Request: fold
Amino acid sequence: GAGVSQSPSNKVTEKGKDVELRCDPISGHTALYWYRQSLGQGLEFLIYFQGNSAPDKSGLPSDRFSAERTGGSVSTLTIQRTQQEDSAVYLCASSLYPGLARRETQYFGPGTRLLVL
Amino acid sequence: AQSVAQPEDQVNVAEGNPLTVKCTYSVSGNPYLFWYVQYPNRGLQFLLKYITGDNLVKGSYGFEAEFNKSQTSFHLKKPSALVSDSALYFCAVRVNTGFQKLVFGTGTRLLVSP
Reply:
């Protein structure tokens, strides 16, 4: 595809359930990022992947959050035992050049809107 | 800490008038600054970025931004606003942690009236 895609677009779940959010980056992009957008916190960084490894997980809000990336492409963000405060829009972004390349630009997907009841 | 600030929650402008959305930054070293736009129920769309060079950066949809080092500002501008420009605009700075982590401002809602 031409852009970053995310699925599902919307997810409603009950408190305590686990959810998986998927991100398909732009083909050939080596770097992948997850962000969270919520009313109270604005846009916040969660985790970064370079290839399949995640050198920075500092933004994950708790140990209920985890993410993986396989084959240097698709990534899955998993939230275990969801809480109401997890309700937010989860955005994925990818970029072509790794590290601190000056040409680096992140391109975002449409997001997954998560509602925890 | 490296950060950006967007002092206005909302900007109102009439169609055809020039618009400015403000952003100031606080960084150590050379700033790498970005503007993104978000339409309702959509992800963020890249508009433009400043890395180095000319202080006036031109981007998508007729937008431009002016980098001002002395005022530590990176305001987004457009000479003539369109109703379709109504959206949420985010300024961001790249934090130099060894990779490109973006730190975003709180966003400014632009409303362009017919």
Observations:
- The two ends of chain A are 33 Å apart (CA to CA).
- Chain A has a mean pLDDT of 90.
- The longest strand of chain A covers residues 42-50.
